[in-house]
Write a structure and sequence with these properties.
The complex is a heterodimer.
Chain A: H1 3-29, H2 46-68, H3 78-86, H4 88-106, H5 112-128, H6 132-153
Chain B: H1 2-13, H2 16-34, H3 40-50, H4 56-81, H5 92-138, H6 143-161, H7 166-179, E1 183-184, E2 191-192, H8 198-201, H9 206-224, H10 242-247, H11 249-264, H12 270-284, H13 296-320, H14 326-337, H15 346-349, H16 353-374, H17 376-380, H18 387-406, H19 410-427, H20 432-455, H21 461-465, H22 467-481, H23 485-502
Antiparallel strand pairs in B: 1-2
Helix pairs in contact in B: 1-16, 2-4, 2-16, 3-4, 3-9, 3-14, 3-18, 4-5, 4-13, 4-14, 4-16, 5-11, 5-13, 5-16, 6-7, 6-20, 6-22, 7-20, 9-18, 9-19, 11-12, 11-13, 12-13, 18-19
The chains are: A mainly alpha, B mainly alpha.
């Protein structure tokens, strides 16, 4: 990211985090008090309150700094959004995340070896250039190897 | 007495089954370290989950081997393909790769291996004999001091690991501290920010969070961002010449000491150590112009410092329960998981544990030297594995490592969430080390702040007037103020005035 982009990103992050921080501060104020343990300092919300207050303060500083650098000059057009989603990196990033989520959702619903093989096969196929036979051999072989190594050597319970 | 106990502990480890474990774990560490994208922190976090069912001694030994091996392993890819395998090897690239390009790849690997070994030995010396001393001082620490210590750790870590923008380093640390407070609080067991979730009431699972923070961004980077993978170079002679090492004796000692000192600073880590040592080596060199063009001195300085830093980073783990680097933070979390209680009381409850850890560190270092000098050509082949195959496998290992500790798929979700957070943190120039340190130290900060105020019935004066507190507060103020441009200008003016008045100064480099 160049300085201009960073200023814009800082602006958005600061606004979101300040808003989130204020909500958390509100939630913290409703934490129960334990007068038998002492004053306000003994409450479970005491340290988190101070911490969030410090965070909000730092994000306010970041917000002011990003404003000085023109971080609020954000223009989002349909063309920009289309370009972003059409870029190779964004596509690969979302596919990657999608595969993670798919693996997580299927975990425990189908056998571990099948889920792992499927994830590896799709990942190697998509990111490795499309040789399906090679992807299949590597994914099935690796899944079995992982299953045996972790169950036998590491004695790790698998999902 | 200390050296004798250390020797006894080393002899205890000299049996075939332990040595077998040491060698495979160090080999795995070197492999993890040399693969660009796989870091020591991630390797340790992964193995923590995978060795959770093992006996405590064996598990900690494996993790130390992984730590030592991975920090050293980063030099391989730095030298051979111009990509540091771990951040710790970033300064190794400057001279390691030019040396390799001039046809001296084997020599560069040999020098890096020997320098790493010597650096580790310097680290070992301080770890064995300095920790008990620091531990005895730490016994004076009460809740007041621990509060300031945890705050100091996060602030200095944010300061040094985000040099471009320390504010983001501090934000990162504060976020970590806050997230550590999710779950039941340590004094009244009140569930904070759990939203009624039973899984969250125990707090955010530390190891899955760390695996996510370090592993998932690497997988995302490796798969989503198209990178051209360089082929590793051919290797000839590996064993270094004694003459080269002897000529660098001052450089080695200086870099080793720098590594240890930086290692002992909370959360700062091996990458900073190697940069600082490299800078000092260049300033102290008779041929500073050769740096960056294949200077052996530069390579030796970077590699000595990053491995010395490992020993340095374990010192505060054992003496103060404050990790010196991100991998040491995971090591500390692993010790907690196995029921160990690092910190001042360790010296009282199990005084020999420091020597036990030092012995493990020694054996791991020795294995690193043997493996580093003997299996060069075979191991270099690993560098040719493509990211499209390696990274999905790394993801599976991350998932298994996260699941293994509590047997909950929920922890895999935590890993994924923290993975996305970690990716965002890196993309936006927030350092990840303070975030991790915050996650580790959050409970300590919360508990000690509230406990100290409860002890004084809310009076804040003792928090600011106890001698160690005053030192820590002064360090915190100095750390924050030192980044101020006006303060920097004032300091440089003072330096110039002193130099002129006293009539000395650094010699100008040609």
């Amino acid at each position: 990211m160049d300085e201009k982009q960073m200023a814009k990103a800082d602006f958005i992050t600061s606004v979101v985090m300040i808003a989130a921080g204020l909500i958390v501060l509100g939630v913290t104020l409703y934490f129960p008090r334990f007068p038998e343990w002492g004053g306000i300092y003994s409450n479970p919300g005491f340290t988190p309150f101070l911490m969030v207050l410090a965070l909000v303060g730092m994000y306010l500083y970041l917000l002011v700094r990003s404003l000085k650098r023109g971080g609020n000059q954000i223009r989002v057009t349909g063309e920009m959004v289309r370009k972003f989603f059409q870029s190779m990196v964004a596509k690969r990033y979302f596919i990657c995340l999608g595969l993670f989520v798919l693996y997580y959702i299927l975990l425990g619903r189908i056998p571990f070896i099948l889920d792992t093989s499927l994830y590896l096969f799709l990942s190697i196929l998509i990111f490795g250039g499309g040789r399906w036979l090679k992807a299949l051999v590597i994914s099935v072989g690796t899944s079995f190897a992982i299953y045996l190594i972790f169950l036998r050597i590491f004695l790790v319970p698998l999902p | 007495m200390g050296p004798l106990i250390l020797l006894q502990e080393i002899f205890k480890l000299l049996n075939p089954s332990t040595l077998f474990e040491v060698f495979w774990a160090t080999l795995l560490g070197i492999t993890v370290g040399m693969m660009p994208g796989l870091t020591a922190t991630m390797g340790i976090a992964l193995l923590t989950g995978l060795t959770f069912q093992w006996a405590t001694g064996d598990a900690i030994l494996i993790l130390i081997c992984m730590y030592v091996g991975a920090i050293y392993g980063g030099s391989r890819s730095a030298i051979l393909i111009n990509v540091p395998g771990t951040p710790a090897a970033a300064a190794t690239v400057f001279d390691g790769y030019p040396l390799a390009r001039s046809g001296r790849a084997g020599e560069a690997i040999g020098l890096a291996t020997t320098a790493s070994f010597l650096g580790s030995m310097i680290g070992l010396f301080f770890l064995s004999f300095f920790t008990p001393w620091l531990g005895s001082i730490a016994l004076e620490f009460r809740s007041f001091e621990f509060f300031w210590l945890s705050l100091f750790g996060v602030i200095i870590c944010g300061n040094l690991t985000a040099p471009k923008d320390p504010l983001k380093g501090w934000i990162s640390g504060a976020l970590g501290l806050f997230l550590a407070m999710v779950g039941m609080d340590v004094i009244q067991a009140f569930p904070r920010y759990t939203g009624g979730s039973i899984e969250l009431s125990g707090g955010l699972s530390l190891i899955p969070a760390l695996v996510g923070l370090y592993g998932i961004p690497e997988v995302l980077n490796g798969l989503a961002e198209i990178q051209i993978q360089e082929k590793a170079m051919q290797i000839k002679r590996v064993i270094p010449r004694l003459k080269d090492l002897w000529e660098n004796r001052k450089n080695i000692v200086r870099s080793g000491v720098i590594g240890v000192i930086i290692g002992a600073i909370p959360g700062v880590g091996e990458n900073i150590a190697s940069y600082v040592a490299y800078d000092f080596a260049q300033r102290g060199s008779k041929h500073p112009e050769k740096f960056g063009k294949g200077a052996e001195e530069g390579l030796i300085a970077a590699e000595t410092a990053n491995n010395a830093c490992v020993g340095g980073a374990i010192i505060p783990v054992l003496a103060l329960a404050v990790p010196g680097s991100p991998p040491a933070a995971v090591l500390m979390a692993a010790m907690w998981l196995h029921g160990m209680r690092p910190g001042p009381l360790l010296m009282v409850e199990t005084p020999n544990y420091v020597y036990e850890v030092s012995a493990m560190f020694f054996i791991a270092t020795f294995a690193m030297l043997v493996l580093g000098l003997s299996m060069v050509r075979t191991m270099v082949k690993v560098l040719n594995v493509r990211n499209s195959i390696l990274m999905p496998i790394v993801f599976i290992l991350c998932a298994i490592g996260s699941f293994a500790i509590a047997g909950r798929t929920y922890d895999i979700l935590i890993m994924l969430i923290f993975g996305v957070i970690g990716y965002g943190i890196r993309k936006m120039d927030y350092a990840d080390a303070p975030f991790i340190l915050g996650l580790i130290l959050g409970d300590m900060l919360d508990e000690n702040l509230r406990r100290s105020l409860m002890l004084t019935s809310g009076a804040v004066i003792p928090l600011f007037t106890r001698p160690i507190c005053i030192i820590l507060i002064a360090l915190i103020v100095l750390t924050i103020v030192a980044r101020n441009a006006r303060f920097k200008g004032m300091m440089s003016e003072t330096r110039e005035t002193v130099t002129k008045t006293l009539g000395f100064g650094r010699k100008k480099q040609p």
